[in-house]
Amino acid sequence: MILTGSLHNHSTWCDGKNTPREMIEAAIAAGFTDFGVSGHTYVPQDDFGVRDEEAYVRELRALQKEYAGRIRVWAGLEHDFYFPVEDRARLDYVVGSLHELRDEATGRFYVIDGPKEDLLVCRDECFGGDGLAMAERFFELTAENAGTYRPDILGHFDLIVKNNAANDVFDETSPRYREAALAALRRCASAGCVFEVNTGGMFRGYRAAPYPARFLLEELARLGARVTVSADAHETAALRFGFGEALELLREAGFSSVAVWENGRFVDKRLPMV
Ligand SMILES: [Zn+2]
Ligand SMILES: [Zn+2]
To answer: Which residue, of 66, 95, 166, 175, has the greatest Cβ tally within 10 A?
Structure first.
């Protein structure tokens, strides 16, 4: 087993179903040596996410001590571009993500990974019905996220496709879509981020494949970028969901190694030969 570390996971501190302790116990049972909890940063208008970062980190540090010798526990946060972490120094890592778009004219936020209706409202109200313009804005901000904050992991690079399985919000095969995604991908790669292959959307039944899409993974492989595998688990049952498939996908896309978090840093491990 090469995927022994996993950093992008949630708990009851935000929208997860299990407590950090339950997640850690399940991670031990699943064979992890390194396990991180990465709650969402606080989003005031939705009263969503980790409201008290200090108390959150305190709890994770206590668990880190308690579980020493059985599993290494890491304290992280998944920041949203619009809602960065308060104090990065007290964390072991940050997952940098983008879950919302803001209408600059009204200041209103639109969640892009909630119900599909909300994504359609965003497209129609902010982008005059032009779904590709919405996707372009999403990727532009994703690149800005990477450049400005240089997160340790760049979260679900093409999350904007979450509610587009039927390809009816915007056309993912359009050159405009692909060019916007690829341009942002290159900017993120040059910022030195580790990208994640995120199986969370698969576990929850939104997508048949992980983020990012195959053509993006192929470009990452060409660029020599580093990629890790994340479950984005919101419950214990999701901890290793789709990991075998993710490794297979990486190999097919041209990768020979995968970055695995081990004892406080990413280590490149060779993908097993078929
Ligand atoms: Zn996320
Ligand atoms: Zn997440």
So the answer is: 95
